[in-house]
Amino acid sequence: MNLGLLQEKALPTDMVSGEFTPIVGGKINPGGQWDDYLPVAEFQNNNGFDRMACVTYSLENCLETVELCLTGIENNYSDRFLAKLSGTTHQGNYLSKVFDTILSTGLAKENDYPDDSMNWEEYYAEVPSDPLTKAKEYNNNWNIYREWVTPYNKDNIIEALDYTPLQVTVRYASGDGILNPLGDYQHAVMCYGYVKNKYWKIFDHYTQTRKKYAWDYEFGTILKPTITLKDNHTYMKFEQNRLYLLIEGNEQKLSMFLDGNLVEFPTWSMTRENSNSRLGKWMAAVPVKLIDWNSVPHTNSKGEQI
After folding, report:
1. What are the residue ranges spanned by the domains of the chain?
2. Which H/E stretch holds residue 299?
3. Mean model confidence pLDDT for the chain
4. Three-state SS string across 36-57, please?
5. pTM of this prediction?
6. Residue 117 and residue 121: Cα distance in Å, rounded?
7. 110-119: pLDDT as tens digits
8. Which CATH class, in words, describes the domain spanning 16-229?
């Protein structure tokens, strides 16, 4: 059974983290746990037919997850759009081919090209001009790079997860326990974290979303997709000794800018649910969006880097 994966090997010219080149970009989420940024659940086998687009679904899940972490904005990109333009067939597609398609076409949002298809022919019909035009905006905003991660080196995988979720190839399995399937790789999913020495956290788009693959399970291929914002954003200029309040994300956090760092005060953090009762204590702080909040180094009150 193949769920949409065509096998390939990394070329000698490809970037391989931990081997030929250093990992591209900076650590976005130290610790490598992406649970708080997972995308909406979407399934490749809706309406009675399989789109064979696991490579598209898993790659877009990685990009949506890291984008939410970087910006605080939850975008949902059209799997139908990328699956068609990357040339997905009844046998599936290659990781590199789907990734490289984004470089030339960009990504359309789900609302601009929704999956309302009832069969294969509708899903893979020619893409109209309007979503093709709107998709180009993605590449106006983001730089996108790919590397391969050595699947047999757990330290490399752990390090790569500090930068982004990973697109990994697996043998399909389902269930609530720890999975360790045998057989050829025929499915692509997102790895979004781990419990060391126990299991890898897997986000799927076939029958269920969150799964656990055994710590000793060896992935077939690992692609590390990296995105960085292009310099279209005018970043906030922080002032010495000013209070700043993060206003995006799950929590509101207070900090003071001292000597080039935002010094966070964790005892002041509060959830949105109880924010109204303590609003007066925040009035002196300058509101900050997540993109600006993440643009400078952070320390705790002891001066330790966060």
Report:
1. 16-229, 243-299
2. strand 298-299
3. 87
4. HHCCCCCCCCHHHCCCCCHHHH
5. 0.74
6. 8
7. 999 999 999 9
8. alpha beta
